[in-house]
UniProtKB/TrEMBL annotation:
Keyword Cell membrane: yes
Protein name: Aquaporin
Name of a matching Pfam family: MIP
Keyword Transport: yes
Predominant place of localization: membrane
Any single Gene Ontology cellular-component annotation: plasma membrane
Gene3D superfamilies assigned to the protein according to its UniProt record, in alphabetical order: Glycerol uptake facilitator protein
UniProt entry keywords in alphabetical sequence: Cell membrane, Membrane, Transmembrane, Transmembrane helix, Transport
Length: 222
């Protein structure tokens, strides 16, 4: 599992550095499309770069969905989780060293007054659950036995970009507990206080997606 651990750590670091970096280091005014594409393209790059090694989950929710679908063991999932959390923290730390704002702003997720579009908790919770479920369904479908493997990275990256285009104003878009964990741990304050939602909601959404495949609701041979 050493290679898989290293790949997941590296891939998650790149996702946070590039995705959150586009939000923090990009030109003013804030360019929502640029941030969405940065996250999407980062996933495409890592899918082809580390996909052959670890599958390029770079997301605890994705690993949970794969586990629930019966495609990896619980032990493997936990190793992936540790690697992803450390990778996200490393990515956020590197970004803090580059950004003029230091740890004051690292593309952290949030909701409520003064955050993104000011959407309430209910909207944030629903969006993160539904968006993660959609994201993981795409991943499980395109990487399945009858999926279009050569185009998997492109499909997954496009899906993540579209999710960001739709949801950046709602939560800044997590659909990935690790992506939220790294910045929140360094920024602290409200970001850390709201982190629970960006852990719980994506995991719920991923579990739903995994069950749809585990129960063969979305199985092409069922």
């Amino acid at each position: 599992m050493v290679k898989q651990f290293s790949a997941e750590l590296f891939g998650t670091m790149v996702l946070v550095l590039f995705g959150c970096g586009a939000a923090v280091l990009g030109p003013a005014p804030f360019d929502q499309l640029a941030v969405a594409l940065a996250f999407g393209f980062a996933i495409v790059a890592m899918a082809y770069g580390i996909g052959p090694i670890s599958g390029c989950h770079v997301n605890p929710a994705v690993s949970l969905g794969v586990f629930v679908a019966g495609r990896m063991s619980g032990k493997e999932m936990l190793v992936y989780w540790v690697a992803q959390l450390f990778g996200a923290l490393l990515g956020a730390f590197l970004l803090s060293l580059i950004a003029k704002t230091g740890t004051a702003s690292l593309g952290q997720n949030g909701w409520g007054v003064g955050v993104q579009g000011g959407y309430p908790l209910q909207a944030a919770l629903i969006f993160e659950i539904v968006a993660t479920a959609i994201f993981v369904v795409v991943i499980l479908g395109v990487t399945g036995p009858k999926g279009e493997a050569p185009f998997a990275g492109i499909a997954i990256g496009i899906t993540l970009a579209v999710i960001h285009i739709v949801g950046i104003q709602v939560t800044g878009v997590s659909v990935n507990p690790a992506r939220s964990f790294g910045p929140a741990l360094l920024v602290g304050g409200q970001a850390l206080g709201q982190l629970w939602l960006f852990i719980v909601a994506p995991l719920v959404g991923a579990a739903i997606a995994g069950l749809l495949f585990r129960l063969r609701v979305l199985d092409p041979d069922a």
